Records
---
Amino acid sequence: MQKTILIVEDEFVIAMDLKVMLERQGWRVLGPVAGVANALRLLEDERPTVALLDVNLGDQLVTLVAEALRSRGVPFAVASAYDKPELVGGAVLAGVPNVGKPTSERNLLEVLAKLSTS
Amino acid sequence: MDLEDLYRILRTGHVQAQGIVDTVPDPMLVLDSALTVQSANRAFFRTFAVDRYDTIGQHLYELGNGQWDIPELRHLLGEVIPKSSAVMDYRVTHDFPQIGKKIMLLTARTVFNPDNVSHLMLLSIVDITERSRKEAEFEAVFGELRHRLKNVLGLVRALANQTKAEGISGEEYRKVFLGRLHAVADANDLAFSDHGEDSLEALVARATKPFQTTPETIIVEPGPPVALASKEIMSLSLLLHELATNAIKYGALSAPAGTVRIRWEVEQGDHPLLRLSWRESGGPPVRKPASTGYGTQLIKFAIAYNLGGQVEQKYRTEGFEAEIVVPLERAARPD
C-alpha cells in the first residue's frame, strides 16, 4: 500500500518543495497545510502513515496537531529551525526526530523511512 | 605639633579617603570588622535611595530596616571573606522593599590597618539589574534572528530545488534562480524595515524596479495605503517577480512598446479585501500556454496557500491579466 504523509508547513515555497520531493519518492502527500485547523480537519478524514511538522506556524504553534497525532498513534518528525523544538512547542515534541531547517533530502528520507517501519 | 595640627592632618586624611570613596562610580561601603558602616559613597545613597545619616554608624544588617540582611551576603561576609582576603563579582539577587528587585555583583576586600591593628572591609556593589535585563533581551532577539535566518535558508534551498534545471543551460538556470533570490532578499529587507501603512506601495515599487527599462514600462497607479505582514510581503514579492518575468519572456514586456499597469484597491466591509490587478498591453497577441510552469504554480500557491487569497489569470488576446484578491484580516485566513 502507498505510504501517506501529512505535511504541515507555513512557508509556501518550502511546502511546495517538500510535496514535490516526497511525491517523486513515491509518497502520497496529505496537504500540505499551513495551519493547525486545516491539519486537524485532514486528520479527521484520514490517518496518514507519518507526519512532518513545522513547529512555528507564523502566529500559532503546531502543538495541537502533534498531540492529535500522538493520540492516534501516528509517528511524526519535525522540520524546525529550533535546536530544541520542545522548548517552543511543548513536551509533546520532546524526543521527536528533527530533520532541521534547511532540510536535507537524504536526512528527511532516512528519518521518514525509519518512522514508517517502526 | 599641637592639637590643632594633629586635627588638621586627621581631617585631611579623612577628606582624602572620603573623596576616593566618593569618586568610585559604583556603590561602595567601608565597614569595620564588626560590619558597622564607617563610610559610604554617593553612588550608594543614590542607587539604594537611602540617606547618609541613616547609614553611617549603623550595622550593615540593620540598615534600612534590615533590607541588607540577605542570606547570600551573610554567607559571603561571614564565611567566605574570613578565609580569603578578597571576593570578586559575587552575584546576589535581592528584592528590596523600596526599590524592587536588584541583581548585584558584590566585590569585598579586607584592608589591614597597621596603626591600630584593625581590619576594614571595602564592599562594592555593582547594580547589574539593567544590564542583565538588556542581556536577556539581546538573547531573545538573537535567538529569534537565528531562527529567521534558518527559515530564510530553508526557503532559498526550496527555491533552488524548485527552479527548473532540466533541459536548460547552467547560465539560464542561474539567471532564473538569482531573480527569485533577489525577490526573496527584497521581501526580507522590506519586512525588516518598517513602512507601516505604505508597505504595499514600497513593495510594488521595489519589486518592479528591476524591470523598469523606461519609466513607462510598468505604470503603478497610486492606491490606498495598505500595511502588510512579513508573510504577505514575501508572497506578493515573489508573485510580482514571477508575473514580471513571464511578461518579459512571453508577454507585453517582450515588445518594445509593451506596458504593464498595476493598480490596487481595498474593498472595505466586514471582511476587507485587497484587490490588486496586473494588466499587460501593447505586447504580442496572447495565447493560453499549453502547460503551466513552476512560475505559474508559484503565483497561485503564493496567494492561495497561506494568505487564503485567489489569483485569476486571464489570457486575453490583447494582453495578459492577473487579478489578485487577498483577505486583509487575519481571521479570514486559513490558519
---
Amino acid sequence: MSLFINIQEGEDQLPEVTSDKGRLLWISSVDHKQLGIMYLWLALFFFIIGGLEAMLIRAQLAVGDNDLISPEFYNQLFTMHGTTMIFLVLMPALIGLATYLIPLMIGANEMAFPRLNAFSFWMTCLGGFLMYFSFFAGGAPDAGWFNYAPLSESNYSSTQGVDYYLVGLILTGMGSIGAGLNFVTTILTLRSPDIKLNMLPLFAWMIFINGFLILAAFPLLNAGLFMMLIDRQFDAHFFIPSSGGSAILWQHFFWSFGHPEVYILALPAFGIISEVIPVFSRNKIFGYKFVAASTVAIALLAFGVWVHHMFAVGMTNTVNGFFAASSMLIGIPTGVKVINWIGTLYKGSIRMTVSMMFAVAFLIDFTIGGLSGASFAIVPIDWQLTDTYYVVAHIHYVFLGGTAFGIFAGIYYWFPKISGRFLSEKLGKWHLWLFVIGFNFTFLVQHVLGILGMPRRIYTYPSRFGSWEIFNMISTLGAVMMFVAIAVFLWNLFITLKKPRTAPKNPWEAWTLEWATNSPPDLKNFEEVPRVHSRRPLWDLANPDNPDKRLN
Amino acid sequence: MINTDFFITPDNWSFAGIILSVLVIAAYLLFLKTKTSQKAYFIVTVILLYVSFGSPIALLRDYGLHSLTMLQHIVLLMIAPILFLKSIPSNTILFSEKFKLNILQQPKNYYLMFWWLSAVMMWGGHFLSAGILSAETGTSICGITATKDSWITAIPESLILSLLFIAGILFALPVFNPVKSKRLAPLKSVIYLFTACVSCSLLGLYVAFSASTDTLNSSLTAFTTLRSPVPLTLRADQELAGMLMWVPGCILYVLASVSILLSWYEENPVEKSETAIHTAK
C-alpha cells in the first residue's frame, strides 16, 4: 500500500495576475526586483518605528530624574528598538538591496528560487508585525534585544511579550535563512556563462560569502529561540539554573549567532562601499583580491570570537585570553579593507555625490566603531566597561555609522537604477550633514558617559550627576538632528517618486552589469547579456583599446 | 613559575635526535635539487619534528600536561605535514607520473577518505593520548579516567605521534600536493580546509568547555601539576589544550585558505592552459 495519496492537481491552482498594476501584483509577486523593493519599504517602515522609539528613549534620558514615560514602557522601548533596528531594518534593507541587485549584477533574469524569495520576504514581514502585535497583547518584550535568561524566562517576564519576541524572531530567522540559501544558489548557478566566480563584483562576492554566514549562524539563533520557547510554553528548563539548566548556555547560543550577525550586517555594507568608492573615484578598486580574500577570513574567524561578548560571565583567564587574541585578530582583515578603500581614493578623480559622501562618512565612523570594538577585546577594559553606555556607543558606530551609512550610500547610488529617478542631491546633502553631525553628537559623547560609569538601559539617573545630564542632553540634541535628517530624506523620497523617470541606463558611468539594463530594468532583466571578460565589463565595452586584464 | 632550568639542562635534549636531524637535513640538501624556500620548509619541518619528539618540550608530557600533548598533536598533524609537502620537489618519484599508484593520481579519488582518516586520527589520537596521560598520572582528563594497568598504557605514545604525522601528510596531500595539477581546485581546497577547521573547532570546544564540568578538585592547587616545570591547574591545563586546538588550529587553516584564494583571484584559465601546454612542450 502506498504511503502517499495521489491528489490530482488542477491546471490553474493559483490566481493569475492579469494586470501589471495593483496590489495583487505586488502581494503575489515572485519577481526579485519587486521583492527587493518591498524589502526596502519594509525596512524604511520599521526604521521610522525604531527611530520614534529611539526618540522616546532619548527624550526620557535628556534630563535626570525624568518620568516622561513609565519604567515598564521604557524597558519595552529599548528592547523593541534594538530588535527592530537589527532584525527588521538592517537585515531587510541589506537583503532587499541584494535581492534586487544580485541577479542584475551576474547577468541573470531571476533568483534561483523565486517562490522561496517571496516566502523569505513574507516571513520577515510576518515576524516583524507579530512582534509589534505584542504591544496590543499585554505588552512588548522587555528583556533587552539579546533577551538574556533567566530574565526572559516566565518567572521574571510573565507577560507574553517575550513569546512574541521568540516567535517573531524564529519567523524572521527562517526568512533570512531562505534568503541566504537563495543568494548562494543564485550566484553559483545563474551567473552569465562568462562570469567566473573570481570575476564577481565585490558586492556580489560579499553577498555570496554572507549567504554562507547566514546559513551557519541563523540556525544557532533559531535553535536557542525554540529552546526558550519550550522553556516558557512547556515548562522545560534549558536556561533556568535553579532547576538544572544553564543561563550561560543561552548566551553561548545567542552570541555564537550574534557575533557572526555583526558581520552579516557589515559584509554587505562593505560590498556597497566597494562599489561606490571606485565608481566615484574613477579608479579600479585597489587590491580586489585582498578585499575579497579578507571577506573569507572575516567569515571564518567570525565563528571563533563570540565569547568576547561574555568576558564578564566569569570564565577563566585561559579562555578569556584566547578569545581576546582571536577578537583582535579579526580586526586585521577589516583593517585591510579600510586600507584598500583609502588606496582606491588615492589619486582618484573624486566626485563628491551624496552616495560618495556617505561612503566617506562610513569609512570614518565605522573605523571609530572598529577601534572601540578592539578596546573591548582587552579583557580588563571589557570588565570595566561592559553594560555601560560605551557599549551603546560602540554598537551604534558599527551598525549606524557603519551598516546604515553603507545602506544610505547604496540607496543614493542605486536609486536611479531602481526607480528611474534621481534623488535630489541638495536635499541629500542636508540629509547627510544633519545625520552625520547628529549621529556623532549623539554617540561620541556616549563613550564618555560609559567611561563615567553610566549603565546602559537605566530608566533615569539622578539629576545631581551634572556631567551625565550635560552629555545626555547633547546626545538627545544629536538624536533630534538625526530625526530631522530622516524627515528630509523622506521628503526627498516623496518628491522624487512623483517626478517622471529620467535616469539613463548608466548615469554614474559605472562598470558592473546592472548598469547595462534600463532604469528601472524591464521585467526580464536581460534580453541579451553583454560579454564579460573582466570585473568591469562596462569599462571594457566603453574602452575597447584599454580593457582590464582578461580573466576568462 | 616556569622552571627555565628544565629547558636548558642538556640531558633533556636528545643528542641522538640532533644527530639524526642533521643527517636528514644534510641528505636532503645533498640529494634533492630544490628552491631556497623549499630548503627552508624542510629544515623547519625537521626542527618541528625534533621539538615534538626529542626536546624538553616532549619530556613535559611526563608531568601530565594535557596542553603539551595537544601542542604536539597540532604540530605533527597540522603544521609539519604542510611544510613537509611544500618542501618536496614535484619530480620526486612518489608524486611523478611514473608512480603507478592510481589512487594518488587524482585528488577526487582520495580526498574524502583522507579527510575522514585524519579526522579520526585527530580525535582518536587525542583521546588515546588523554587516556595514557590519565593512566600515568592518575588524574581525570577530558572525562577519561584510566587505571595504571589499563590496556591503553601498552600503546607507545611515539606510535600515536608518528601516525598523526602520517595522517597529517595524507590530509594535506589534496591541497598541498607538490604537483600542482594534482591538487583540488582552489575553492574546493578552501571548503576542504574549512570543514577540517570545523572538526578541530569542535574538538577544541569540547576539550576547553568540558574542563569546567570536572570536579571542583581539578581547580584546586593541590591538584596542580606542581612538580611540572610549567605548573598549571588541571582545569587551566585542559582549557589551554582545547583553546590551542581551537584558535591557533583554526587560524592556520584560515591563513592557508586565504593564501589559496589570493592566487585564485588572479587566475586566468586561458593563460593557465597556455602555460600548461608550453610546459608540456
